[in-house]
Every structure is written in C-alpha cells, then in structure tokens.
Amino acid sequence: MKVGIVGMPNAGKSSLFNALTQAGAQAANYPFTTIEPNVAVVPVADERLDTVAATVGASENVYDTIDFHDIAGLVAGAHKGEGLGNQFLANIRETDAIIHVVRCHTDDNIIHPDGRVDPLADIETIETELIFADLDQAERRLDRVVRTARGGDRVAIAEEAWLTEIVAGLHEGRPARDIALPKDAPDAPRSLGLITGKPVLFVANVDEGDDELPAELAAHAAAQGAGAVAVSARLEAELTELDDDEAAVMREELGVSESGLARVVAGAFSLLDLIAFFTAGEGKPAQSWHLRRGLTVWHAAGQIHSDIQKGFVRAEVIGWEALVESGGYSAARDSGTLRVEGRDYVMDDGDVITVKFTP
Ligand SMILES: Nc1nc2c(ncn2[C@@H]2O[C@H](COP(=O)(O)OP(=O)(O)OP(=O)(O)O)[C@@H](O)[C@H]2O)c(=O)[nH]1
Ligand SMILES: [Mg+2]
C-alpha cells in the first residue's frame, strides 16, 4: 500500500512522516528502507502474526508494509506555480490513498503561511489546489485522446466520453471521486492518477496531549466519506526518541492511548476497508498481507504471487486464533478446524492460508 502525505506548508507533514518512519522501525524492529529522502517503507507490526509464527515454528516474521511519501506543502495558487508544492504532486499520483495533514495545534511559535489557524479554510485551500492539478492532468490527456478519437479508434472514443465528464466535474470544483462515470470506466481516476479520486484520511495535527478530533474536522470528513484521526505530530516524533517503557509512561500521563502510527495505520486500513491475512509454515518466513474486504482466497493468492494465483487448486484455511489454540497445523487438521476451501471462499480478517497450486 502506498500513501501520499499532503497539506499546507508547516502543517506538520514531515514531523508526522518522521514519527511514522521511526515508530515503524522501532515497533517492528525492522530496518525501514528510505528509497528516497521522502519515501519510507514502514512495516505494519501485527501481534497476531508473532503468535502464529511462534505456533508453527516459522523462521522469521515478515510484516506487510506501507510506503509513505512526504511532499512539500501546497499553497493557494500552487497550480499557477506558487510555492514548491505542485511539482511534487506527480510523486503521489500512483498512491492508493492520501493523508491530508491539517494544522490544528495553536503553538504561536510555529508560523502559519496565512497567519492564522483555521483548519477548514486550510482544507479548502488544499482541496482546491488538488482539483486544479487534476484538471490540468485530465485536460492534457483529453487533448491527446480527442486526436486519436477523430481517427475512429473505439477505445479512444469511449475514453473521450468519460474524460469529458471528469473535466466538466473538476471545472465545477468537484473532486474526481464525486464524479459519476460510465460503468465501463470505474478505474478511470486511478489510471489517470487523479489525486482527488483517491480515498482521504485527514490527520488533525493537534496540541500535545490533546487526543480529541476537532468536531468541525470530524464533520467535514464524515460529509466526504473520508477518515479522520487526531495526532500530535511533534509529540509522536518526541516519543520515538524514548524507549518503549518510557514512551508508555509518557502516553499514560498525557492520556494518549495508542501510538500515532497505530492510529494512522488503523485509519488508513479502515478507510480502504482492508483485512489482514497470514501465511506461515515451519522453517519458513511467516508473513502478513492485506486485502480488500469481500475478496476471495483466489485474490489473496494473487497478493502472494501471480504464479500461485494462476495455478490455484485449493487452499487450507484457518482463523489465526484457532490455529494458535490447536498448537499447530497437524492438530488443527485432526480436529477439523483447518478447512479446505475453493477459489470462491471469501477471506476473513485474521485467516491463515496455505495455497495449493500447480506450478
Ligand atoms: N507545537 C507543535 N509544533 C509542531 C507540531 N507538528 C509540527 N510542529 C512544528 O511545525 C514546524 C513545521 O513542521 P513540519 O513537519 O516540518 O511541517 P511540513 O508540513 O512538513 O512543512 P513543509 O515541508 O514546509 O510543507 C516544525 O517546527 C515542527 O516542529 C505539533 O504537533 N505541535
Ligand atoms: Mg515537510
């Protein structure tokens, strides 16, 4: 899963990025990879995998990862070349979801580009710039497609139709996700890399020790069908410098229950409606994976490897708790809690699967 972080300059994007990256490295004790200075691959620790791995005697734990992309802040007029932000938007066109960091903290020492703290006004500025950037992208593509369509190319003619809808909708100031498209073009916003077509998780960057999501932000997110969580980016960044016990004591004192990483990851997963599943075998790595809820074990096989999906025969499936209670695969097989399922089996959160396939 790839996630792009957007927001106003000084909103706290890089602070959040650093906190997530370091917390991921610590929580999972797993060396994160910095592909570029502003891209981090963060493992998503999952205690269920640890227990499953211990039960079956796996060689190591490999957690599924999230790529976070931190880009420069956007200012009003970015689409006309103001500030730096616009040129970095290309970096997040390929992501699965957007994290929109909104300054809500009231620290006067931190300059706000517009000289005031107003979360909803900031959100509107960013949403407007993203719509303009998408409009630019869609119009350029439309120009090209119109030329091909004139030659009678049927694919181009269909594409011209939905691109025209998108361009018109964006012109009216609507995000791509709200623009109705013909049924044969459901992936259009994605294939075009439209940022306003992606699901959004708002991260309210709140004052230290303030765990509450501002009501106005919660309402705005709900109206859009977006997710929202409150995090103090600075506090989270500071907590990653402490060891686990010290950080737990600090959290307790401040009344901040869960780590910022856990909240952001949980927010992103519920936004994308993802479930976790596991693969594990004796002497082999135990791995966690994620899949959209409602998909089948055949889709799950495709996550693991396209060859495993192609040669899919059947799968052995068991809930992680049942596997741990049985103490291993062979006992689970004997007691009948390990089931054999066909390709249409719909995956449950926490399933452990072994796919049988013909190479
Ligand atoms: N008091 C307080 N300060 C914060 C918080 N989060 C970030 N800051 C400070 O705000 C300043 C800007 O934070 P950054 O994380 O660099 O902001 P950014 O969104 O990456 O900014 P650009 O990259 O310029 O767009 C830094 O001095 C941070 O220490 C917070 O939760 N509370
Ligand atoms: Mg930054």
Give an account of the 3D structure.
With 359 residues, this protein is of the alpha/beta class. It folds into 3 domains: 2-112 and 197-272, 3-Layer(aba) Sandwich (Rossmann fold); 132-194, DNA polymerase, domain 1 (Orthogonal Bundle), CATH 1.10.150; 294-357, Ubiquitin-like (UB roll) (Roll). Helices cover 41% and strands 20% of the residues. The strands form 2 sheets. A 7-stranded mixed β-sheet has the order 2-3-5-1-6-7-8, with helices on both faces. The chain has a 6-stranded mixed β-sheet with strand order 4-10-9-13-11-12, sandwiched between helices. Strand 7, helix 6 and strand 8 (227-231) form a beta-alpha-beta unit. Helix 2 runs parallel beside helix 12. The two termini are 27 Å apart. The model has no long low-confidence stretch (mean pLDDT 89). Magnesium ion binds next to helix 1.
Query: Helical content, roughly?
Result: 40-55%
Quote the CATH topology of the largest domain.
Rossmann fold
Query: Would you list the SSEs in sequence order as H and E?
Result: EHEEHEEEHHHEHEHHHEEHHEHHEE
The dominant shape is: flat
Poorly predicted regions are none
Total number of domains:
3
* Quantity of strands, as a count: 13
By CATH's scheme, which homologous superfamily of the largest domain applies? P-loop containing nucleotide triphosphate hydrolases
Gyration radius over CA = 23 Å
